[in-house]
């Protein structure tokens, strides 16, 4: 198991993790959750080797997995319950 695959396996321990190298130096990450639920994400070489970009990719994967599992709150819960008028500006 490669170091990259070990890292993703530890981050997504609920999934069977496989990685395939791509010709551009990136990887194809596959997360298999069982019951036919498979999630695939292509990660570029630059994303793998830049800490900020890798953190962003990991966050995006977690968000997408939560969305697939319908764990995201409904849009109505995210919207403000109060509406305010936009400010108006007057010239003197």
Explain how this protein is built.
By secondary structure, the chain is α+β, with helices and mostly antiparallel strands. The protein has one domain (3-73). It is 38% helix and 20% strand. The protein is built from four helices and three strands. The chain has helices spanning 3-11, 45-48, 51-68, 75-78; strands at residues 16-21, 27-32, 38-43. Strands 1-2-3 form a three-stranded antiparallel β-sheet. A hairpin with a 5-residue loop joins strand 2 (27-32) and strand 3. The longest helix has 18 residues, at 51-68. It is elongated. The N and C termini lie far apart (70 Å). The model has no long low-confidence stretch (mean pLDDT 82).
Quick rundown:
The protein is of the alpha+beta class.
Show the helix and strand layout.
Layout: H1 3-11, E1 16-21, E2 27-32, E3 38-43, H2 45-48, H3 51-68, H4 75-78
Antiparallel strand pairs: 1-2, 2-3
